[in-house]
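Kindly draft a sequence, keeping tokens residue-aligned:
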Amino acid sequence: MNEKKDISIPEYYQNRELSWLKFNERILLEAKDKTNKLFERLKFLSITASNLDEFFMVRVASLKDMVDAKYVKPDIAGMKPKEQLTAILKETKEFMERQYNAFNRSLLGLLEKQGINMITYHEQLSEEQKLYVDTYFDENVYPVLTPMAVDSSRPFPLIRNKSLNICVRLKGEEEKFATVQVPDVISRVIELPKTADVRNFILLEQIIERNIDKLFCGYEVVSACPYRITRNADLSIHEDEAADLLEEIEKQLRKRQWGFVIRLEIEDKTDKQIIRFLKNELNVETHSIYDVNGPLDLTFLMKLYSVDGFEQLKDEKYIPAHYAISGEEDIFTQISRKDILLHHPYEAFDPVVDFIRQASEDENVLAIKQTLYRVSGNSPIIRSLARAADNGKQVTVLVELKARFDEENNIQWAKMLEKAGCHVIYGLVGLKTHSKITLVVRREEEGIKRYVHLGTGNYNDATAKLYTDLGLMTCNTAVGEDATAVFNMISGYSEPRQWNRLSIAPYWLRERFLYLIKRETKYAKEGKEAFITAKMNSLCDKEIIEALYEASGAGVQINLIVRGICCLKTGIEGVSENISVRSIVGTFLEHSRIFYFANGGNSEVYLASADWMPRNLDKRVEILFPVEDAEAKEEVIEILGIQLADTLKAHVLVGENYEKVDKRGKKLLSSQTYFCEAAKEKESKAGNPAGRLFVPVIVKM
């Protein structure tokens, strides 16, 4: 008999930060993948840079705070904050080298072959181009610039987070330094006149650097180099002490631009005197200085992607399909007939927008209640909610002000909704409301009826075209009662004695997930059918991982689809031999959360707003909801099956590292491409009930 292993030891877990960096590495692999179109590769490289910025602003900043506070408690992998920070800084420097190798050694040359000349340094300009650039500077750039000299009467200015700047070393009667911010009101990617059928582009900072001497008459410019800083942007909100949460967040937002510097990026050819000057003025440590072999801030590649033309170098833009909702009858009649499952972005987000719009205009609708975490900049849902209040309906909206990097946007929406007459709740003290739920209360012939939309993603019509998510529309009585209880809990102090269908964090969701996992363990020991298939964004909760390890040890077959962080290790004898983990990185960002349990042969399928992370289970308002309609349930199971069969965009976790799927002897399949094609086929068959889209895929591990 095998000795039972201690599943709590740190060796069985991965550090969450290093696991996230492996996720960004998988995105970088898409930038290197020759099977992707050239401009799609540029986009993936841009995404890695944007991701890394946020990682520094939040995760690295948080670790630095811990180190400064002498916090020494190890994480689940046994790493103390200082050890994590050391490992992360080493890995991020190596990662950035790989980013720029991909840019310099591969992508630039491929662009050139396509007749696109990306001029990365102004010294590469031809004489004719120099004349054009100098004129462009004089007419368009010079009037906007403000050179900031640094001397005893003019201290070094506050440099905004993520802004691009140029530091200048000057020689006059004595050596001086100055800094110039590259204006973000002018496009960073400038197209120069075409030459011999070649389109030429240069970056704005190179135009400024070439003409920098025009800003400092009477001084000799010894050297000038771009630099960029990343600051701590993690807000410290003392909610218990705040008299007004909205005012407190507005105050903290103003501070975000001026948090301490956690990264300084400079060109690798930068003058050592300038480096010493910036290091002192910005109070940045040597290990936080990143020498870059190329243009700073590769997110400019997204701007290049958006330049007109080059459509042959991009994937064809996918237009979401319409098939679940008919425009010939009102949406409430259709939901009354059967539960409606929506699969975004393959299926349009329009039914969700129409649900709110029709509710705002329907004279029989009495009330609309909704949670909003992230919404688009020109949200049709916000407009419908305001119109509903104007039409005399009771409208209650929880706008989560603490949605990171969307705080300012959400504050504006909250104020606008209040002015429109909606009752607005500014989140809950100590918690983020991350659940996605809408409740519409309608008066009908048989009495009051409740219609509910529950989703895995945000009420954001823009990101719904980019993120994969699932939504469910239902008028199930039990779900409607639970939805009412959710909003009463959010807006007041009431907690229901029991829940019918929904499980809510932070109070009961952790226990529910643990129960479902342990139930599979029990069935496996009894020789009954037992498996778990789960899809999420991140997995780093130790208690959940321990339960999965126990289930695996009991013989439960576990297949996990985890896009990003995964602190679990596979292939550990007697611990995780029955667990497989895959990550899918493709055109769309995998965002849906799906949980499928064999339950001894009486399978159950759930969708949720929550990942298996401590913050989701303990510090957020989240919702887990069942998919009970037979057709919808089968479709969700089939979605999981197709993703588990992905051989083109999936990476499989082997131990603690990821490998591309071994394609030998397997059908070549990209799950995202499959869903796009399947949705279009389903759209074409929308009027043919006999026309079946999916081939059933049995997901038994």
Q: What stands out?
A: The chain has a mean pLDDT of 91. The longest strand covers residues 220-231. The two ends are 24 Å apart (CA to CA).
